[in-house]
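hey so u asked for the seq, here:
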Amino acid sequence: MFSSRFHWDFHPNRLTQLLAEKRRAGNPILDLTESNPTHAGLNYPPDILRAFDNARGFDYQPAPAGSIEAREAISAYYAAKGHQVAAERILLTASTSEAYAYLFKLLANPGDNVLVPRPSYPLFDYLATMESVEVRQYPLMYHGEWSLDLDGLAAAVTDRTRAIVLVHPNNPTGSYVKRTELDALVSLCSERRLALISDEVFSDYDFAPDPHRAGTLASMTGCLAFAMSGLSKIAGLPQMKLGWTVVGGPADLRAEAFEKLEWIADTYLSVSTPVQCAARVLLDAGEQVQMQIRERCATHLSLAREVLTGSPANILNVEGGWYITVQVPRVRSEEEWTLELLARENVLVQPGFFYDFDSEAYLVVSLLTAPEVFREGIERLRRQLDGA
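ran it, structure tokens below
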């Protein structure tokens, strides 16, 4: 009766089961996986809600690419960072997840494939499968810092590959694509007629400048490229449901891609009028939220390094984003580490295999967690490490 897209096992895993048991028993959980900024104790400026006190929100004027007013506000966001991005190259969606769905529809036929990084956010398999598209992985390598395995990526390309997905910076490794890597990717995409899709939702959260780091693909001209972002991360406003895609590349390909994306968007018309009317105010007010997130992540990264210094664990090099990856001794599996932390210390972390790390043993921790929770949770993690 149901489609073959739903091939996943929907039964809760052992960590989810134990967490549910703990919560039913009333145990206070120190959640070091929190990634929802609205649950992180941030101070949201009142201008955010006042932005919706606008009578134009009652006037429905459907525009497949989004209102020009909202797109100009996003164009101004890029201009403030030194990038000239015309509003006419910006297409609005309700989220980056929806943007992925649009792009997979645009670029791939059923049975085609897209390349995605490993390790990375586990949502790709779901998003691609819903569009009848196959996911093929290309490896990231770690030798004191993360880099793309360009040979491994090239080897993953097949005659049915349609796009290469970059997560810039990666989630959870926090690694940015470097200029030399991007040059190689552009050459490959131009030669094989592939598109580049750059997920840049965490791009504003770097810990330090790096002249070797590639910038946004919103200014790309060498191959067909799509740069995605949204209010969810850059303004800490996931509840506002506004994302966007900037279409770049050679003028002819860019124009055709944008026209087809408008056709797709016209089928759904998912972005609400009130959030489009409020876009400029939300972007401006969101800067205050972003500043808090940047400060918290930097403080928590420093604290984690301090607490874990001298322990059997190692925090892998991280350039940006909201997460750290903690390498722990392979005296037990990642699953056993996470289960024991939760069982003995009431501390919740994520195992590396959630993100397709190709070896053991890694734990992924969110830097966004409320300060009192983060400090206590990291100290308990240290205690568990010392007892291993």
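The mean pLDDT is 96. The two ends are 49 Å apart (CA to CA).
lmk if thats what u needed
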